[in-house]
């Protein structure tokens, strides 16, 4: 099965939080409200600085994707 790169998720145990799940390496779950990341993969690489830069980049991409996705929901509500 082919999965999207990012998924939105919520959970009734955390009603105030919204999560983004990144399904590709490095996999992680981002709590958008808390701005907290739970890494599901070990971040590996010879150069720690490069690994950190790449990790930061993909988390920023997740925030951007989430903002764009939520804007789509807002647009749909406005059309109704």
In words, what does this structure look like?
40% of the residues lie in helices and 20% in strands. It has 80 residues and is α+β, with helices and mostly antiparallel strands. It has one domain. A four-stranded antiparallel beta sheet has the order 1-2-3-4, covered by helices on one side.
Which descriptors apply to this entry?
single chain; 80 residues; alpha+beta; 4-stranded antiparallel sheet; 40% helix; elongated
Strand residues, percent: 15-25%
Q: Tell how many strands the DSSP assignment holds.
A: 4
Query: What's the overall average pLDDT, rounded?
Result: 92
Write down the secondary-structure element order: EEEEH
Helix fraction, binned, reads: 40-55%
Main beta sheet: strand number and arrangement? Answer: 4 strands, antiparallel
Termini gap: 33 Å
Poorly predicted parts: none
Class of secondary structure makeup: alpha+beta
Question: What is the domain tally?
Answer: 1
